[in-house]
Design a protein that fits this description.
The complex is a heterotrimer of chains A (170), B (264) and C (790). By secondary structure, chain A is of the alpha+beta class. Chain A is built from 6 helices and 5 strands, in the order E-E-H-E-E-E-H-H-H-H-H. The longest helix of chain A has 14 residues. In chain B, the strands form 4 sheets. A 5-stranded antiparallel sheet of chain B has the order 4-5-10-6-7.
Chain lengths: 170, 264, 790
């Protein structure tokens, strides 16, 4: 069946069977390979994207369910509404989303595989809770696994990213 | 995942008609339980009928002495709802412990209730609060709803429309999560309705259940220390790598104590 | 030298592409006309293979081929080789069973690949794989060390009597017996080191592409060491010469050891591409990874510690049984021997040590190096034993360690188990860690914990590791079948920018930044003008890859050697330009200067002259500015330190929370502190994961009970606190950078600190032992048992 998806503010019409997962359309049809797949049981969160602004595991959503939605992937985050912020004060703030810049600044990534999911999840948190505490950040990230960083610098990055996005951390 | 036909009706009636016409169809709500099941080929429905196009199922409203929550309301929306937070804060808290943030953004009350996972959180709330499940054709008391492992009183072509939660005098949910899946290893909802005490346990057995022993104790004395006498026979509880039946039995008492503590 | 040189936390150059979603991992690569492979894997731990009927699978539309062990044999593909040979005590060689890429005759663990289905879509390949009909004749199973060493245990291999692969030893039994004979105290311990699954977040993947027109094969693979894979495929498995085989390891999403080895799937996609005439891609599922990636640890040990009346260590005896799984993975025999028993002296002065290690075949997936590899097992055993000795003798745990740590004036220190530590300062890291955790304030924190109705425990581990592997001559003598040097090329471009080609591989370690900082430090070139190239056998002359915390110490040293050659050549060019003698030219702050004058040429000017040699010493110096170097280290490096943990235990539920983690490591000279600390953080999470959360559990039938993220407990953000990480540097004495290595310290040092802390918290209740992982139920049961015993 043909479905039209709005991804990173662009409409794409793709032909896919109803049993196609959103992540497979993003990766295979649209070649947006920044969204990763790290498990098969909807636990790791590497596939997290925004659907109508909310973080969602794209491995646990059918592409056809996303037909009317506004989808943002890691590739489109920097050009999203709060994306190219000059006020972040962080390295590369002009080109990266403030949360992306915070991850670089705080060394919140190593191998980079979980990173897109982490950044998308963290951005959703900070848009809704502009001043999260460390405790809130750690619990919010329950749906995102990382094997490299011990989460230490990820948590720091999310707190810094929250501040850069406009909230002042508690 | 096996192939299927996809439907997106715009009314409950249309969804019911589709279900009637297609005996191997399944309803799709938030999909956070169903899609993982389909991915592992553990179910092979001929048709998926998405409820996402039915706007009327997304409301939360206070109706006298109860809160009515539409079947398509996400866990996250329940968690953040000012009405729920004001009138049944324990329910808002419970919703905030389901799965993880991404699951809560998609998963729905109706989907969870109809799926009846024995380790899901909502069934404990429904049972302990004495909720009523409203479907396209009738109202079912929670006490009659959860009939077994992934089994409910719903007819095959019946659609959950909303859940009516009576506002209790006080209530609390204490959960001991499975460390990997984040489902309830043991979840205990303690409710003081003002007339009686209702205690429901999820995660520990083959289905959510009322805990008569603890209810009796708390009816007599709604206090943490009273639960020193509480006990759960382990023989009907689940045992697995994460927790033996004996440990689950112990956790039921501990979680009950913590729930009572949170009520006080 | 420069603001981006050593000691600067330069933000990582590689981050941008990862943060923008532009990393390129193997599964992100799509080749034209690509096909997809799915493996049929054994659901049984042990079965004889009868007929394999692929007729229904082949009938699925889109299926291109179904290949089996018979096809592998007919094609003459080699078995998966083992890269390390260990000899038993009696001089006999280890039992080295065949390891065909697809099972032939029998399957020996759940997940053993039986058939490979190739189709033009993954969906078709998956559907067809489910239709391959395999006749399994189920056989008895030995899925644990205990089962495999029982009398009359089923044999994994007929040649391995008692399922013993080798029975090896190290140290001097006579002097150890003598030490025990004069001991005042002997403390004994028996413990397991639990089995864990590595779980790099990127599942393994491989794409084989055979170009028939040029008779050339390209393999894209999730590898930590593409040259090693090419070597093994060229010489042993695919059997094509190196110049006809290119191995590319693009961005790789973590490895932790699990992506060192040559896996069957790499060989199979490369070969299958030839069979079907199209590129063949395979990407592992997570559940598939659990039963096909090599696991780590899995030891059962008994140990005895002999002490004199004052608590001075006199001797150590260790007997270990190590599970190595059903097949020998690439480095498997080295892990419980040369990376384990050699570390049993720890940071302590031991006059006598004797260790015996039996490697045991079981019907489980292979066990090989996982972050730390042997050294965590040694550290765990030693630090649990030392803690037990302190309790038994009534000596403070910190003081007992202080009494026995090797003193700074004892270096270089020759251990009784083959290694010679060049340098360290174990007292300094101990003091640093104690200050960092505010050990003086512990009692106050304990009171606060108890006021909440919980128990608090303090745990310590003083550890050492050996890494930066390693001298080729030494490891060759120890059984390695390859050298372990590293190679580098430094190419200075005409305008002075630099490309570095390294044989190491970065899969999270940040080489693109750290190695650029070496260039910046040594040549004064900004890191922005340095490109670090890795992971492609066609672009990099050679290399041994990244594992054993070796990249900076060994790979970085190779880069320094190449830089030294560049600097020397540049001197000759500069001398010509400056009309001076090369002997009078020095290279300082990125400039060639005539000593004692202000006459100088910038590095860029010299580079330009090398490529535009209009005014050039053409008779004596070749144009161009590019140098290769190989570096073979003189010794292992020996990082060490102290890891401290405080836990809070909920006695009602048994839940253990990590309250504090403070570590002080000595990893040698630090190039980028931000990256070095990040490596420590990751190792700590994996170490804490093993101590509290993770365990790969096989049942008696050889089924992996928790082979998915629904039940294998991975550490999450909420399971961990912020870590306090400190470094006290003593520079390695034998490599040009003074670097020791940091990749594994966290995973090595912290597990016993966690368990020692849990035991400390429970000790007042009478608990004396708890095994990894200290799960809530296990802790709760220990408390109940102690209560009953009391």
């Amino acid at each position: 069946m043909a479905i039209t998806l709005r991804v990173n503010r662009q409409a794409h019409t793709v032909d896919c069977a109803p049993n196609t997962l959103l992540v497979d359309v993003l990766r295979e049809k649209l070649r947006l390979t920044g969204t990763h797949v790290g498990c098969d049981t909807s636990q790791c969160g590497a596939c997290t994207v925004h659907v109508d602004g909310r973080s969602v595991k794209s491995c646990t959503m059918l592409a056809v369910e996303a037909a009317d939605a506004e989808i943002t992937t890691i590739e489109g985050l920097a050009s999203s509404a709060d994306g190219s912020s000059g006020r972040s004060g962080l390295a590369d703030g002009g080109n990266l989303h403030p949360m992306q810049a915070a991850f670089q600044e705080c060394h919140g990534l190593q191998c980079g595989f979980c990173t897109p999911g982490m950044v998308m999840s963290a951005t959703d948190l900070c848009r809704r809770n502009p001043k999260p505490t460390e405790h809130e950040v750690r619990h919010w990230l329950e749906g995102n696994l990382c094997r490299c960083t011990g989460y230490h610098n990820i948590v720091k990055a999310v707190l810094a990213g929250a501040e850069a996005m406009g909230g002042k951390a508690k | 995942m096996k192939d299927f036909q996809f439907h997106r009706p715009s009314s409950v009636a249309e969804a019911v008609a589709l279900l009637k016409a297609r005996p191997d169809a399944k309803l799709l709500s938030g999909g956070q339980s169903l899609i993982p099941v389909l991915k592992l080929d553990l179910a092979e429905p001929s048709d998926l009928i998405s409820l996402a196009g039915i706007g009327e199922l997304r409301d939360i409203r206070v109706d006298g002495d109860r809160i009515v929550i539409g079947a398509l309301v996400t866990h996250d929306a329940v968690h953040r709802s000012p009405e729920v937070q004001q009138h049944i804060p324990a329910l808002a808290t419970l919703a905030g412990t389901i799965g993880d943030a991404q699951v809560r953004n998609r998963g729905t009350l109706g989907g969870s209730v109809a799926h009846a996972d024995p380790a899901a959180d909502y069934p404990a709330a429904l049972l302990a609060l004495g909720a009523t499940i409203a479907t396209d054709r009738r109202k079912i008391a929670a006490d009659d709803f959860f009939t077994g492992l992934f089994e409910t009183a719903l007819e095959r072509d019946e659609v959950v429309v909303a859940v009516h939660f009576p506002i209790p005098k006080r209530a609390a949910y204490a959960k001991f999560s499975h460390r990997a899946s984040k489902y309830a290893l043991v979840g205990v909802m303690v409710v003081d309705t003002g007339h009686n005490v209702r205690v429901a346990v999820t995660g520990a057995g083959p289905k959510v259940f009322r805990h008569a022993n603890i209810e009796g104790i708390l009816e007599r004395d709604f206090a943490v220390d009273a639960l020193a006498a509480a006990s759960t026979p382990p023989d009907e509880l689940n045992g697995d790598l994460e927790a033996s039946a004996e440990y689950r039995a112990h956790l039921i008492t501990v979680m009950a104590r913590r729930a009572v503590q949170a009520c006080l | 030298m420069s603001a981006q040189g050593f000691g600067a936390s330069v933000r990582r150059k590689e981050d941008r592409r990862f943060l923008l979603g532009k990393g390129q991992y193997t599964d992100d690569i799509t080749l034209p006309h690509q096909s997809y492979a799915v493996f049929v894997r054994s659901p049984h731990a042990h079965a004889n293979l009868g007929a394999i009927d692929a007729a229904k699978a082949k009938a699925v539309p889109g299926v291109l081929a179904v290949l089996t062990g018979a096809d592998v044999a007919a094609a003459g593909l080699g078995g998966i080789p083992c890269g390390w040979a260990v000899k038993s005590k009696d001089g006999s060689s280890m039992v080295e069973p065949p390891h065909p890429a697809l099972a032939q005759g029998a399957v020996r663990h759940v997940g053993d690949p039986v058939a490979m289905v190739i189709a033009d879509s993954k969906t078709a390949a998956r559907a067809a794989a489910a239709l391959v009909d395999v006749d399994y004749q189920v056989q008895p199973v030995a899925a644990s060390i205990t089962a495999a060493t029982a009398a009359d245990a089923p044999l994994v291999w007929p040649d391995a009597k008692g399922n013993v692969c080798f029975d090896w030893h190290l140290g001097d039994p006579a002097s150890t017996d003598a030490a025990f004979a004069k001991a005042k105290h002997v403390v004994e311990i028996e413990l397991t080191n639990s089995r864990v699954a590595p779980n790099a977040m990127e599942p393994r993947a491989a794409i084989g592409h055979y170009d028939a027109a040029n008779d050339h094969t390209t393999l894209y693979t999730t590898s930590q060491n593409p040259h090693l894979i090419r070597l093994l495929m060229g010489a042993f498995t695919l059997k094509v010469p190196e110049h006809k085989l290119r191995v590319v390891a693009p961005d790789v999403g973590g490895g932790f050891g699990s992506k060192i080895y040559h896996y069957a799937e790499e060989l199979l996609v490369a070969w299958a591409s030839r069979v079907v005439g199209r590129p063949v891609k395979w990407t592992s599922d997570r559940m598939e990874a659990f039963v096909s990636d090599a696991h780590g640890r899995d030891h059962i040990s008994k140990a005895q510690l002999a002490l004199d009346a004052n608590g001075k260590f006199l001797g150590l005896r260790v007997a270990t049984l190590a599970n190595i799984g059903a097949y020998l993975s690439t480095f498997a025999p080295a892990i419980p021997t040369y990376l384990y028993a050699t570390l049993l002296s720890g940071p302590y002065d031991f006059p006598a040590i004797y260790a015996e290690v039996k490697a045991i075949f079981t019907h489980t997936v292979a066990v090989d190096a996982y972050r730390g590899a042997g050294r965590p097992e040694a550290t765990y055993l030693l630090e649990r034993l030392v803690d037990k000795a302190a309790r038994q003798l009534g000596i403070d745990r910190i003081e007992l360690r202080r009494k026995n740590l090797i003193r700074t004036d004892q270096f270089p220190y020759q251990t009784q188990v083959a290694l010679a530590y060049d340098i360290g300062n174990y007292q300094a890291t101990l003091d640093m860690a104690l200050a960092s955790i505010d050990h003086a304030g512990y009692d106050k924190r304990k009171q606060a914990t108890e006021a909440k109705g919980k128990l608090r425990g303090f745990g310590i581990s003083t550890y050492i590791e050996a890494c930066g592997i390693a001298p080729s001559a030494l490891v060759g003598a120890l059984g390695a079948r390859a050298g372990l040097y590293e190679a580098a090329t430094v190419r200075v471009h005409p305008t002075g920018s630099v490309s570095v080609f390294t044989g190491t591989h970065s899969h999270g370690q940040g080489h693109e930044t750290t190695f650029a900082q070496i260039i910046s430090e040594k040549l004064g070139v900004p890191v922005e003008n340095v490109e670090v190239v890795h992971g492609d056998t066609d672009r990099i002359p050679f290399g041994m890859g990244t594992y054993g915390s070796r990249s900076a110490a060994v790979g970085g040293s190779a880069i320094v050697k190449a830089i030294d050659k560049i600097v020397e050549k540049g001197k000759k060019i500069a001398a010509h330009l400056l009309e001076a003698s090369a002997a009078d030219v020095e290279f300082v702050d990125g400039k060639y200067r005539v000593v004692g004058t202000d006459r100088a040429k910038a590095f860029g000017e010299v580079a330009f002259a090398a490529y535009v040699p209009h005014n050039y010493p053409i008779e004596t110096v070749e144009p161009g500015l590019e140098e290769n170097a190989f570096y073979d280290p003189k010794n292992f490096t020996f990082p060490g330190g102290t890891h401290l943990v405080e836990v809070e235990v909920d006695p009602e539920t048994g839940v253990v929370e990590i309250a504090e983690v403070a570590i002080a490591d000595d990893v040698g000279v630090v190039i980028n502190p931000m990256i070095v600390d990040g490596q420590a953080h990751g190792g700590l999470a994996q170490g804490i994961g093993q101590a509290l959360l993770e365990e790969a559990v096989y049942d008696a039938d050889g089924q992996l009970v928790n082979g998915s993220y629904l039940n294998y407990v991975m550490p999450r953000a909420a399971d961990l606190p912020f870590f306090k990480v400190g470094n006290h540097v003593t520079a390695c004495t034998h490599n040009p950078l003074g670097i020791k290595g940091v990749g594994e310290t966290g995973a090595i040092g912290v597990p016993p600190a966690v368990i020692n802390a849990v035991i400390d918290a429970l000790a007042p209740l009478g608990v004396t032992d708890i095994s990894m992982p200290a799960t809530p139920e296990k802790v709760w049961r220990a408390i109940q048992a102690a209560k009953k015993g009391a």
